[in-house]
Coenzyme A biosynthesis bifunctional protein CoaBC
Amino acid sequence: IKEIKQGLPLLGKKVLITAGPTYEAIDPVRFIGNHSSGKMGFALANEMVALGADVTLITGPTAEKTTAELQRIDVISAADMLTACMDKFPQSDITIMSAAVADYTPTEVATQKIKKKDSEFSIHLKKTTDILASLGNIKRDNQFLVGFALETEQEEMYAKEKLQKKNLDLIVLNSLNDKGAGFKTDTNKITLFNSAFDKTSFEIKSKTEVAKDICAEILKLILK
Ligand code: CTP
Ligand code: CA
């Protein structure tokens, strides 16, 4: 395998990728989740393996299967994902945070199944830790950090704001406005912004092709 991998651009590089949704438990049988399929993160992981990288994939609940040679860590909640990311990040050269992490989680998790009543019911939520921002805070100069931005309005403005606030080297703007892009689909329409705010736009493509575009841009920036 070593020989086959010779000449690959990311040989010897450690890449950390997160994928999928997180599930935030309400009680033993219910959770708050989102429609993320994990497809984008898995496509990125496969592409990074193909480029010769040593890949760790931290994933929330997903139906996706891992085929490539990589280390897979399964997590459920945003808090679990934070712990796993904090553990792996210091050793990582390139980190891509493509998971759709819950922004809020129930303040308390009921130990027994909550029974229905005649009255209305509400759940109190607290904010989760922003994993990407936490990684951006502790990032060293020799580490490359990539985030995603999922927007439905004023997308470029919000994406650039996230790029700057979270101390990223690259942000992938995911446009949900376009048909066939985003959650649940096999295609995505992305725009990239590097830390100098240079913009690169792409056509709507399969997530496998999108993963290739993102990895090519990362290679361009780190080998510069
Ligand atoms: N993210 C994270 N931890 C969170 C929330 C988000 O690491 N608790 C990461 C996502 O993985 C993504 C980036 O932050 O790479 C942007 O996520 P997004 O939901 O688009 O932005 P938010 O900063 O959460 O802001 P908002 O949802 O209000 O747009
Ligand atoms: Ca969010």
Observations:
- The chain is about 30% helix and 25% strand.
